[in-house]
Amino acid sequence: MDLANPWTRVSHAPPGDTLGAVIGRTRHLLLDFDGPICSIFAGLPAPVVADRLREVIPGDVQIPDSIADTPDPMEVFSWSATISGALAARIEAELAEQEVTAAITAEPTPYLDEVVIASRESGRSLAVVSNNSGRAVRTYLARHGLTDSILVVMARTSHDPSLLKPNPYLIERAAEVLIAQPGSCTLVGDSTTDIEGARLAGVRSIGYANKPGKSDRLTAAGADAVITSLAELALRLRACAAFRN
Hints:
Blueprint: H1 18-24, E1 28-31, E2 38-39, H2 46-56, H3 65-69, H4 73-83, H5 85-104, E3 107-108, H6 112-121, E4 125-133, H7 134-143, E5 152-156, H8 169-178, E6 185-189, H9 192-201, E7 204-208, H10 214-221, E8 225-227, H11 230-244
Parallel strand pairs: 1-4, 1-6, 4-5, 6-7, 7-8
Antiparallel strand pairs: 2-3
Helix pairs in contact: 1-11, 2-4, 2-5, 4-5, 5-7, 6-11
């Protein structure tokens, strides 16, 4: 253990406290947007957005049943890229517009404010790494007074879905902008793609199991720790702040 580096000091985490150990080794928290920060489609449901994306598809393009029926806008977008770059660009542009609209009525995730405060008090930086549109993320952060608390926003800016998680591209770019080693970063995400992307990027991960059944899936995907509420994360960060002081 390098006692000269406080970010490697994890003796304040009780034995068996996996989450505490992960936080003890973390200098930069990378938060997924939809889930850990807010429920982006709380006011504008995802199935409605998926329908609006399908309306953009030209009539001469055959839509497979799986895409015609999916309530997931991201699945529609990903499929569009298999047809052509031009269609993917049109779908992504519409998806971004819908996400910006959705960000206005998105519901904040409980205890996020506590995580933000505890991160600052414990000397940790915050970033957003999201498959959602960068414009939508920034719209939400501005409306909720979080712009100054989030150092980096690394989100979707391209119509190439292959760059999105589980591809580690966005996670790696966030670490680069933060001038951070992967080992000092931890991604908090609520999907297996978040956990897979973190593993590929060489960063730790905390699974946010905000729905029944997610805990097992996130654990199986390789999450270093799993929480069911951001309150758990805030408490560990507060403990680190107390230890730091």
